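step 3/5: co-fold with NAP
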Amino acid sequence: MRDSFFANTELIGLIGHPIKHSYSPFIQNYAFELMNLDYVYLPFDVPTENIKSAVNGILALELKGLNVTLPHKEKIIKFLDELSEEASIIGAVNTIVNDHGKLIGYNTDAHGILETLLPYKDKISGTKVTVIGAGGSARAVIYTLLRHFKPEVINIINRTHQRADTLVNDFSLKMRYDSFHTFELFPPDNAETLSNSRLIINATTMGMFPDVDDTITDLEESFNEEQIVFDLIYNPTKTNFLEMAEIQGAKVVGGLKMLISQAAKSFELWTGVEMPMDKITLKLEEYISRNAD
Ligand code: NAP
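step 4/5: write tokens
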């Protein structure tokens, strides 16, 4: 890692709360180093009441851009000047570019989700899918599914039913899709919904470090060998939810590829340079196994 910075070093920030365990600073700073770019990426733990000040800080301190992580991806939108098409439909932003004082919001999570699911496109297009969660990343999931995989039915399971209903209303209007079904998160009732789905996606924080023993369901009848089960969580790299699905024969996919793909897209938006993804993946896997508890 570099040990000196200069007056014209470009600064990129990350805001979220909490952000202590994010891998993004590692990924971005290593990519800057590999590509010989005079940039530095720093995390800032910003509670919700300080989002507006943080956005003003981008302009005051002339940051080149920002990543935004949970729980700010939806709330930050009202402070931005412009949104990309996908960020506007999704209603969540994870990347901001400071274009000479104009703050433009993007959603590169959608790209990460697409890159992760593309290898399974033939298996999942036109089938029943279930998304668990109704937050910012669930919105990016729904957008990607509707745009690229044309599911027959999308079931949405969420702890707060009202939030799932709001999501459905938004997407029915914006993307003209009317095959949504919503359910409350109540595992015994959800087992049939899950087992009838070709693709299951966990877009909640359940099972994320440090609460690794939490899981959306411990009912093994939810899973079968025809399914693809994708958990957006990347820490741990394989959640209990995925472990259980794998034992039942499902093909399981963790959140690491999405993490690196969304990071690569953000990197490109800030620098105009392609991120060397293979090298980053190897280095990140090495870093994770070195730091595993
Ligand atoms: P978010 O907007 O805060 O949404 C959180 C979701 O989790 C909501 O649906 C929430 O339900 C649910 N939830 C939280 N605690 C719960 C609990 N105890 N029981 C049941 N449900 C609970 O967060 P987000 O930005 O969408 O992120 C969600 C997950 O995706 C996180 O684990 C994050 O690390 C992961 N992610 C991964 C990547 C990647 O690159 N791999 C990118 C983005 C996000 P309610 O509506 O009821 O509150």
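step 5/5: annotate
The pocket of NAP is lined by residues 70-71, 73, 109, 112, 133-138, 158-160, 163, 185, 203-206, 208, 232-234, 255, 258-259, 262 (CB under 6 Å).
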